[in-house]
Design brief:
About 25% of the residues lie in helices and about 30% in strands. Helix 1 crosses helix 7. The radius of gyration is 18 Å and the shape is globular.
Length: about 250
């Protein structure tokens, strides 16, 4: 399923011991964690693109507290995953949503993220998934019609590439932060629902739209982790326990 990411190549990659190689001899090592870094130099905007190690750790602490499980359950209700599904998560981060779907539904799972730190964490925690470092904004390194379900959960939005890698009569779940997401830690966000629907409308049909919202009481330590996860610097005052809103606007396309 994997394609060579080198510009002008995009030939299939095959496994040779601890590396992947295409017919033009472009080669990519498989890490000791099992993931593959296919990110090309021209696809980077910085030396270390994507989430930092600190942000990944903060987000994982939030997941470990169970705060995002209600969001996962709402997404599962919309996409109805089964063991027959071959699933792509574009912008998978630390792999929470995809990894949990593997454990609970037996899907075939493939996650892509631009952050090596995020993919390293995902591969360590969820070894039964395929994890790839790549820039899904530019090119999703998979063959045409590879997936029955694609996820973009506050992640990458590349309609043309999603259309290419999805099978016919498949599903695409796009989730974006709702205006009230984490409103206690930052000002109210913009309502981007109409813009998101318009972005996908030329290639996909909207089937379902839903806002998934949950609230959680966080102690001071959890607030610190959450601030790291969303790149909100700590103030001079000691962090306090607070009630926080998690909210996603979700769109199921076909």
């Amino acid at each position: 399923m994997l394609l060579c990411p080198v510009r002008g190549c995009h030939l299939p990659l095959t496994r040779e011991e601890k590396r992947l190689v295409c017919e033009r001899a472009h080669s990519f090592d498989v890490s000791r964690r099992g993931y593959v870094n296919l990110l090309q130099p021209q696809d980077k905007r910085s030396k270390h693109p994507g989430d930092t190690e600190e942000a990944v750790a903060g987000r994982m602490r939030v997941h470990d507290l169970g705060l995002t499980v209600p969001l996962l359950r709402g997404i599962e209700e919309m996409v109805q995953p089964t063991h027959k599904d071959v699933v792509l998560d574009a912008g998978c981060g630390d792999g929470f949503y995809l990894g949990r779907m593997v454990r609970e539904h037996g899907i075939s799972a493939h996650g892509v993220d631009i952050s090596t730190e995020a993919i390293e964490a995902a591969a360590k925690r969820y070894p039964h998934c395929e994890w790839i470092v790549a820039n899904a904004d530019r090119f999703i390194p998979y063959a045409d019609h590879s997936f029955s379900l694609a996820l973009s959960i506050t992640g990458r939005m590349n309609p043309a590439e999603f259309k290419r890698v999805l099978k016919f009569h498949s599903r695409l779940l796009v989730a974006i932060p709702a205006p009230d997401d984490l409103i206690e830690l930052r000002s109210e966000g913009r309502d981007r629902a109409e813009r998101t629907i318009a972005e996908f409308a030329p290639l996909f049909e909207l089937k379902t739209q839903r806002r998934i919202t949950t609230h959680a009481d966080l102690d001071a330590a959890a607030v610190i982790g959450l601030r790291h996860a969303i790149y909100r610097p700590l103030s001079d005052e000691p962090p306090k326990a607070m009630r926080v809103t998690f909210s996603l606007d979700c769109f199921l396309f076909a």
